[in-house]
Each structure stands twice: as structure tokens, then as C-alpha cells.
Design brief:
This protein is α/β, with parallel strands linked by helices. Helices cover 39% and strands 18% of the residues. Helix 3 packs across helix 8. The longest helix is centred in the middle third of the chain and has 18 residues. The structure holds uracil and iron/sulfur cluster (SF4).
Length: 203
């Protein structure tokens, strides 16, 4: 099956709970086949900050919640240091199913394709409309592609507020998993924290 997209799985009555329920049955691309479950967004419905990652990882896939593994711990620590209250945050991913390749007993993360990002975008757009955050923190290239388009370069424009609509902004930064893999982890973390502080300081 190709990427027919998530659109036709969206509920008629849109609320975060109806979306979550409907997304659990999404077959908008092939990723639902091997993953354990849909990992929908989670957090405060009227959050000031929306954080958008790439896709659930191994632990997120098993537990059914976003950013509960190593990248999530990194994110929690940075949010706290940036002065962003976890209670003011809604967390989600550009793609809602875990994409991986089995290697022995392990499941190795694979980057979602452009087609999969496009297929899954209706869920993210619906979440954005409902939560309507003042600040959307775009975590890495996949989320940037979904929200800011294929020509947006995170490396060039990270930490720069990009207007979304009247008074609302995107701020793009690297993905927290990239910090865990970086040769100079302290420098990578410092850069990430600086970007989050930009997001925290927006009016
Ligand atoms: N990485 C992501 O992008 N999202 C998660 O939920 C976990 C790891
Ligand atoms: Fe649907 Fe997104 Fe899962 Fe694909 S990744 S099946 S579009 S929820």
C-alpha cells in the first residue's frame, strides 16, 4: 500500500480526544503495520508551548507516549533549565508510528520518508489547530519539513523565531537525540538550551 494519507481517518467532530482515538486506527501509510501502536501527542490542551519531534522511538512505541525514552529525559532536563514548565507544554511528533529495522533483538530507528511525513501531517495540523500554541518548538529536520517546508534549513535558522500567525511563532532547533550522538555533547546541549531560551523568552 502506498501513502494514501491520514486525512480520511480524521474524525468529523474534532477534539484532542476524538483525534487520539481516531489516530489509533490510522492506516494512512505503511508504518502502522510493524509498529506496536500509534503514539499521539500528549500534554496540556491549552499549552503555551508545543514541542514537535520526529517520530516515537523504541520506548515510546512500547509505552504509547511521546518523549518518554532517552531523548525525552534530555528534553525534560533542557526544558527545566530553560524555565519552561512541563505543565505549559504539549508534546507530539511529526510522524505517529515508530519506523525501524529489526537487527537481532533490537529495533533500529529509521528516518521517516518525505512521503510518510506528508501522509501523517493531517494529525499534526489538527493538533496545531486545537492547541494553537503561542510557541511551537520544532525539534529537528523531520518536524521542520512537516511544519516549515522542505527548503527550511534547521542548521541555518535554528533559534530564530519564525512567525506562524498573529503573535504566534515557530522556533526550530536540533533534535534532542542528535545531542546524545554529538561528538561534543556539552556544546550540543548548550546550543539546544540557548534555542529553548529563545522560545521561552518570546512575548
Ligand atoms: N524522538 C522523537 O522525535 N520523538 C519521541 O517521541 C521520542 C524520540
Ligand atoms: Fe497514519 Fe501517521 Fe501512522 Fe502513517 S505514521 S499510519 S499516517 S498515524
Amino acid at each position: 500500500m502506498g501513502n494514501i494519507g491520514a486525512e480520511r481517518f480524521l474524525p468529523d467532530e474534532v477534539s484532542l480526544s476524538s483525534l487520539r482515538e481516531a489516530a489509533a486506527h490510522c492506516e494512512g501509510c505503511d508504518l502502522f503495520r510493524e509498529a506496536t501502536q500509534t503514539v499521539f501527542g500528549d500534554g496540556v490542551p491549552d499549552a503555551r508551548f508545543m514541542l514537535v519531534g520526529e517520530q516515537p522511538g523504541d520506548q515510546e512505541d512500547l509505552r504509547g507516549a511521546p518523549f518518554v525514552g532517552p531523548a525525552g529525559r534530555m528534553l525534560d532536563r533542557a526544558l527545566e533549565e530553560a524555565g519552561i514548565d512541563r505543565e505549559a507544554v504539549y508534546v507530539t511528533n511529526a510522524v505517529k508510528h515508530f519506523k525501524f529495522e529489526p537487527r537481532g533483538r533490537r529495533r533500529i530507528h529509521q528516518k521517516p520518508s518525505a512521503g510518510e511525513i506528508d501522509a501523517c501531517r493531517p494529525w499534526l495540523e489538527a493538533e496545531m489547530r486545537l492547541v494553537d500554541p503561542a510557541v511551537t518548538v520544532v525539534l529537528g529536520a523531520t518536524a521542520a519539513r512537516a511544519l516549515l517546508g522542505p527548503s527550511f534549513k534547521v542548521t541555518r535558522h535554528r533559534g530564530e523565531p519564525v512567525p506562524r500567525h498573529d503573535g504566534a511563532f515557530y522556533v526550530a532547533t536540533v533534535h534532542p537525540s542528535a545531542i546524545l550522538r554529538a561528538p561534543d555533547r556539552d556544546a550540543a546541549y548548550a546550543g539546544f538550551l540557548a534555542d529553548l531560551k529563545v522560545a521561552a523568552a518570546l512575548p
